[in-house]
Each structure stands twice: as C-alpha cells, then as structure tokens.
Design goal:
mainly alpha; 134 residues; single chain; 0% strand; 7 helices
Length: 134
C-alpha cells in the first residue's frame, strides 16, 4: 500500500480536534520556558513538578501531532496509536493538576466556571481512550 492510499485511510475530521489541542499545549509549554524556580513558587509547586509540567505540555502537544502522522504498517503499526494515547493521558494528568491547583469549592464550580480546563481535560481523555481510531 502506497503513501497516498495510507493517507486516504486517515480520518481527517479528527485533526479538527487534534491540531487545536496540540497548539494549546505546545504554546503553554513554550510560554513556561525557560523553566525557573520563581514560576514554580508562584503556583506553590516544587521545581521538579514544574519541570515535568513544562516537559509534559510540550511532549503531549508534539506527541498528538507525531502520533497522528506515524504510519508504520510494516514494522510497528501500533506506535502512532500508543504515542497518541500516551499524549492524551498526559494531557488529562496535567489538566487534572491544573484544576486541582485552582482549589475549586465544588465540582459544580469546575463545570460552570472552569470550562476551558474541562474542555482540555475531555480532549485529552478522548485521545487517551480512542488513540488514532477517532
């Protein structure tokens, strides 16, 4: 099967969710560079956790794009799906931490007033559960 035939099998509509989610996470990761202890202290996080947040945001955003583009049918057909799922799981973990650090008063407050973070969390959860099968 040639490259063009492989591209025809890709569900292009899933990229309408994949690209904006990846852009948001790449942009957020880049905005935290260079990693500094002052930034970590402003969120009351240890430097190690802050470093993982920055690396996770950049890695998850890039992983969503790379995971969708990997088309290795011969050697490891599951690699792209695994990268996408791991990136989605990472997004879910980071967004859970963001919501948690915000210390909402109740679950209803999160749903009503923190809808951007909830959207990003659901997007990560979608890719963690569906992978490239979207």
């Amino acid at each position: 099967m040639g490259f063009i035939e492989k591209l025809k099998k890709i569900n292009l509509s899933i990229w309408l969710l994949r690209i904006p989610l990846a852009i948001v996470f790449i942009q957020q990761g880049l905005s935290k560079l260079p990693v500094s202890s002052e930034d970590a202290e402003s969120f009351e996080l240890p430097m190690l956790v802050w470093t993982f947040v920055v690396a996770g945001e950049l890695g998850a955003g890039l992983g969503l794009i790379v995971g969708g583009l990997v088309i290795w049918d011969r050697l490891w057909p599951w690699v792209g799906d695994l990268i996408t799922r791991f990136s989605g799981f990472t997004i879910g973990c980071i967004m859970t931490g963001v919501i948690w650090v915000g210390e909402p008063e109740s679950f209803i407050d999160v749903i009503l007033y923190d809808n951007l973070h909830v959207f990003l969390w659901v997007g990560g959860l979608f890719f963690a559960m569906r992978g490239n099968k979207g």
